């Protein structure tokens, strides 16, 4: 008796159909430096664009969306996690001041459903366009028997460039600098294993409409991650910024500490911002201690900028002009590399 790849669970025709469905949206993320590869085996980027730099440093980052994909699967909403993926990868590049150039993605699924894959990749492409980078390649892998037909996971990698003498980071931070917070759009893409645990062990459900939210919890949880890349680059070009910190897994204190030298502390004021309601809903239902919330979630602060004291007002004005809610979160003082929240 003969058998086939399709009988084993891999549908090549479905994969080809998914590629056709996503082509138009991927094309909209194109940058002038992208070069067509007729074979489709590789993504090509014209590196002669880097000759305008005196000493270009290439920056690279890779990340995924974690278990937020499970909520997307359960709710049947697939384009927002693509947006999350780009934010998680490209906003990491922005921390060092790098302009994002291009990105590639990888999707593993139990069964290729062309429309679903096209939604995921289309969301990635749309977000790449917002971030200013090109989606130049990717891979969709069908894993029958390892993943259920409706299960999937995704990851991506991005590349950017920064002038060597404009590289941002801890070595630029000084006592007296001002710490600015930039609002998150919600939970972003970290802490969803805890979110799912709360959903599994309490009577909180995805279709619940908590009074504090005014909309279904599932809709709130799938709010796409804010993409800060172009806003951070605008701040960097203004000359105001010493360092950034992308607030992801590990929370505000854990991530900001990575951007501090060992000679200073960051003293932050909790009263400077209001924690968004979704975090309070999860904390109350899950009976999560404050310390656990601090180290798991962004709690409303998605990106931090450390700026020169005489440029803080201008930086806030620039961010306001770009519709990014921002405020003075604290200050830099002599210390030993710690973040103090009070």
Automatic annotation (TrEMBL):
Keywords: ATP-binding, Cytoplasm, Ligase, Nucleotide-binding, Purine biosynthesis
Gene designation per UniProt: purM
Family, per entry: Belongs to the AIR synthase family.
Catalytic activity of the protein: 2-formamido-N(1)-(5-O-phospho-beta-D-ribosyl)acetamidine + ATP = 5-amino-1-(5-phospho-beta-D-ribosyl)imidazole + ADP + phosphate + H(+)
Protein's pathway: Purine metabolism; IMP biosynthesis via de novo pathway; 5-amino-1-(5-phospho-D-ribosyl)imidazole from N(2)-formyl-N(1)-(5-phospho-D-ribosyl)glycinamide: step 2/2
Molecular function terms from GO: ATP binding; phosphoribosylamine-glycine ligase activity; phosphoribosylformylglycinamidine cyclo-ligase activity
A biological-process GO annotation: 'de novo' IMP biosynthetic process
Key word ATP-binding present: yes
Record flagged with keyword Zinc: no
Record localization: Cytoplasm
Annotated ranges, domain PurM-like N-terminal: 56-162
EC number: 6.3.3.1
Pfam families: AIRS, AIRS_C
Domain of life: Bacteria
HAMAP family linked: AIRS (MF_00741)
Record SUPFAM superfamilies: PurM C-terminal domain-like, PurM N-terminal domain-like
Protein name: Phosphoribosylformylglycinamidine cyclo-ligase
A single cellular component GO annotation: cytosol
Residue span(s) of domain PurM-like C-terminal: 174-336
UniProt-listed Gene3D superfamilies: PurM-like C-terminal domain, PurM-like, N-terminal domain
